[in-house]
Amino acid sequence: MSSSANIEQALDILVPLRQALEAGFWDSNRIDVKDRVFDLVSCVNAELNELAKLSVSDLGMQYETITPNFAASCSKLRQMSENLNDWFLRSDTNNELGEQLIKAAGLLSDCRLS
Question: Tag placement on the chain: N or C end, fewer CB within 10 Å?
């Protein structure tokens, strides 16, 4: 799956997404939500680990998802986006996650969040 973003832009989306997910993990008091957040954190970390293997000269290349788990994460992003108000009570976490989830969905082909 690919997007119109280059690798540098993808990194500028994935790093804040990981930070927002980590905040969401600590803000949630439900174990089922923590499991879902941890699953997404793991997907994002795996993608970032693969991107870290690239050289600085590759940053301008078009971004394509590398790991199968991140490539298949649209439904997880959508589910989290649809449940933000129920899962994350802190408005800062809720707002930041909502913004970052939309950006991350833009990295995946045919993944749109409402």
Answer: C
